[in-house]
Amino acid sequence: MFDAIIIGAGVIGAAVAYELSRYGGKFLVLEKGEDLCAGTTKANSGIAHGGYDALPGTMKAKMNMAGIRMMAEMSRVLDFPYHKIGTLVLCHDESQISDLEELLERGKANGVPGLKILNHDEVLEMEPNLADTVVAALYCSEAGVVNPFLMNIAYGEQAAVNGVDFHFNEKVLSLERSGEGPDSWLVRTSEKIYETRAVINCAGVHSDEVSHMASSKPYSIRPRRGEYMLLDKEAGNMVHHVIFNLPSKAGKGILITPTTENNLLVGPTSEFIDDKDNVETTREGLDKVYYQSGTMVESIPYYQVITSFTGLRAHEEQGDFVLEETEEGFFNCLGIESPGLTSAPAIGVYMANLVKDKLGLDDNPDFIGQRTDMPHFYMMNQEERHKLIEKDKAYGRIVCRCEEVTEGEIVEAIHRPLGARTLDGIKRRVRPMAGRCQGGFCTPLLIKILCRELGLEASDILKNRPGSYLVEGPVKALPIVRSGQESQGESHEKL
Amino acid sequence: MAEQRKLTCISCPIGCQLTVDLDDDGNILNIEGNSCPRGPIYAKNEVTNPKRVVTSTVRVNNSLVHPVVSVRTVDAVPKDKIYEVMDLIRQLHVDLPVKIGDVLIANIADTGTDLIATRSYE
Amino acid sequence: MKNYDLVIIGGGPAGLAAAVKAYDLGMQNILLAERDDCLGGILNQCIHNGFGLHHFKTELTGPEYAGRYIEMLEERHIDYMLKTMVMDLAPDKTLTLMNSEYGLFSLKPKAVILAMGCRERPRGALNMPGDRPSGIFTAGTAQRLLNIDGFMPGREVVILGSGDIGLIMARRMTLEGAKVKLVAEINSFSAGLKRNIVQCLDDFNIPLYFNTTISRVVGKDRVEGVYLSKADEYFRVIPDTEVFVSCDTVLLSVGLIPENELSRKAHVKMAHQTRGPIVDNTYMTGVPGIFACGNVLHVHDLVDNVSEEAEEAAKNAVAFIEKGAWKAVLKIRQEADCKVQEGAGVSYTLPQVLNFEALEDLTRINFRVKKLYEGASIKVHFDDQEISSRKMRVMAPGAMQAVYLKKEDLDEHRPQTITVSIEEGEED
Description:
The complex is a heterotrimer of chains A (495), B (122) and C (428).
Chain A: E1 2-7, H1 11-20, E2 27-30, E3 47-48, H2 59-77, E4 82-83, E5 87-91, H3 97-110, E6 115-119, H4 120-126, E7 136-140, E8 144-146, H5 148-161, E9 165-167, E10 172-177, E11 185-189, E12 193-201, H6 207-214, E13 221-231, E14 242-245, E15 255-258, E16 264-267, E17 271-272, H7 283-293, E18 305-316, E19 322-327, E20 330-334, H8 340-359, H9 382-391, E21 398-400, E22 405-406, H10 407-415, H11 423-430, H12 443-454, E23 473-474
Parallel strand pairs in A: 1-2, 1-12, 2-9, 5-14, 12-20
Antiparallel strand pairs in A: 3-8, 4-8, 5-7, 6-7, 10-11, 11-12, 13-16, 13-17, 13-18, 14-15, 15-16, 19-20, 21-22
Helix pairs in contact in A: 1-5, 1-8, 2-8, 10-11, 10-12
Chain B: E1 3-8, E2 17-22, E3 28-32, H1 38-48, E4 51-52, E5 55-60, E6 68-73, E7 77-78, H2 82-91, E8 93-94, E9 103-105, E10 115-117
Parallel strand pairs in B: 5-8
Antiparallel strand pairs in B: 1-2, 2-3, 4-7, 5-6, 6-10, 9-10
Chain C: E1 6-9, H1 13-24, E2 30-33, E3 49-51, E4 60-61, H2 62-75, E5 79-81, E6 85-89, E7 95-99, E8 103-107, E9 111-114, E10 118-120, E11 136-138, H3 139-147, E12 151-152, E13 156-160, H4 164-175, E14 179-184, H5 194-201, E15 208-209, E16 212-218, E17 225-230, E18 243-246, E19 249-252, E20 256-258, H6 261-265, E21 270-271, E22 276-277, E23 290-292, H7 303-322, E24 338-342, E25 346-350, E26 353-354, E27 362-369, E28 373-374, E29 377-382, E30 385-391, E31 394-395, E32 401-406, H8 407-413, E33 417-423
Parallel strand pairs in C: 1-2, 1-9, 2-5, 9-23, 11-19, 13-14, 13-19, 14-15, 24-33
Antiparallel strand pairs in C: 3-4, 6-7, 7-8, 10-20, 16-17, 17-18, 21-22, 24-26, 25-27, 27-32, 28-31, 29-30, 29-33
Helix pairs in contact in C: 1-2, 1-7, 3-4, 4-5
């Protein structure tokens, strides 16, 4: 019997797990993906929003404000990158300055400190690469960028250190009341059946389906697809703040920002789709990113794009976060779209409190709040690097030349709590393959290191999900097929 | 003249476009388009008995560091023997050390040429 | 740490040839720094034949070509370090290196030769829409997996781009028992050598479709197939030309990019045409004492040319060290003695500037044409005056061309600008 089972190991599930691990109890996280940060969180803008955007009185506003207030402290405690670089909302039309002022008032109502409207010259002085059409901008100093992977992983890792169990590649199929009492649940997964006193639904775009397993409330998630382009670090200093245009009826529009690693991120588009697993990029979407960004910064060096990707946002039809005990012992974190990442620390606390009070949990005397992240070579100075190599020679071998990632970091990423098992898992933790060559040089080395450290065959190594194998197996051991033929039913005639 | 064939010479990277005139019996009447003496030799081979050097790898016994070692045929082998040569290469396993030039299969597939290692491993 | 007069960064074909040449010219205090665990660079995975016809007068495979140079290096007892990464290069030529043995350490040689080679353009740079499954490799990565690590990357293959590595891999994968279904090329011509199309595609009946690109990748986990579409001259996908081709592997051979992160740290000026350093006829960059050669300078199609270029760079680096300083320090672009520039039909020239103080009897100007030319002429202008015209049977973008300028002509004219251009021939 578990005290609580959390469904989903994205940033919300991981934050809830960490905050819950302050209390004594038996907790389990079930994740259908292969790793922490395998769904919505992995394809995210990484913005810590100031809080001027959400409508006063909503859960979004409440959690955003509480979350941004916690962000600097949590980034220190859990040791993940948060850069408080500030945001700028641009206005290109005198007639829309009133909209900018409205945004300012909304921010004040939400309690956002450090808000200021700047004129053309002030904005251009801060950001010389902005389009000259800018007439004014709303500046928010209490906002910035976080690394969503490392934030998610930090929360998950430390929850695991505090005794929370994590099962990956395990999908929840159904929830039923157990015979034990009205507030206990049977959770049936693709692997087995668990009994628990509480269930916390943090299933992202799938949270409505999970909710329907336990409740008749008609929550409905419509995934919103957002496409992004990521540029080389050489382009990272095009802007020094998170840049938005004034929100229009069509939504917040795209943003331009340096990431915590100083790449330049441009996106996302916003498009409702039906398929919750559709993370395709499209020609139209990427074109839209290209054209829309031009209204903010004209000279984005798009020849330096290193990758493009798509994320899904879990939009609930009512438009607000749902954070509640929906049924006895069944808790929903549902509809967590932007500003979900900013809100995650607060949602973790809020939900853990609800569950603690419900179950009457005591404090966990062994709780360790403070975490030290794995070493990141690229963040270190010469002296720190030299010391690390003296301690462990594996830190003297560069595996990824673009991001300067050493073998030592990769081995550490594999062997930490909830360590990396896949190429993407390594990439999100320590960044090989995240640079300009996108794994061209280091992929073969990473396959070998994973094989060696985990005792696996090369054909077992995955990019991410089961089925995403990298190589077929040893050369010359497989049957032969012959080149130059069309497969059955395929015609190349049009080419 | 019975036939005219257009070939791209592969003797060197220039890739000269060769024109070969043949009579009814397949005898070469004329070769044009080459910029060096290797052109006519290539053209003659290509219309009578086309040949290619085969390069591949062979598996190495008990080595995690060097699971395969690269090999080639010393001279070109007839094109229609390429897959026969590859079958023999697929079956071969070698022990280290191997040195560049070591003969791994002599007179491979009766082609009159040897299969040699093209890299040295301790 | 012992100090060195000359440090060569990169132990591939360019670095090896530069080290041997510098040694033979009397420079014994050389260090060759290589980040991989063996010398030879990309040649080790290029196990096909076709190397060395020009340089060694015999046809070798990549590892054999590298092997000859490694042997020469060993015979001369030239110092080299493996698994050693150059982390930083300052404009005053101070190098920060790193390896497991010494940790981080510094060197300050009198001259540096950049020979870091190039990398492949990845999928991300193409903005190729669709899913992001496993099974999409650059051709060189697949080549390494297959030829060095002994892994079969996949069974059913579509190749995008007809660069030489892609063509070579079409044959390699076929010989190892994979089915290579087709090669798609967005241009109307191949960037690869003609002979590779013959012996790697035609020999195995692998079709090559021009003006064709991948418009969408399909596969949630591993690649399941791709949609191919025709593309117009601006590389835009033409609607309603889509064809689905199933495959489990996509290889990309869509261009190489010189790896100049270090060069930029040293404030070496770059040419946007080559994405490599701007150099003069001595292969010196805009930073005195820093030379460049091989694929870090511009992407070559023949290793023989790399070796030759590296020897030139080494010769000049030795002269630079021996004279203490170059007589006339390179004045890049604005103040240079003479600019060499690309004219009509030419995508780049190299070197980009001339230093008249350092002229040889013949100065080689390398260049590439923008498209396939038949019966066109190479024109060389000194300022506005045509100096030479040579009719060529065929010129393709995949094959580097060269013109040679005589010292006496240059001395006589002292041009400020030299232009290399192509003039299309008239029909016979």
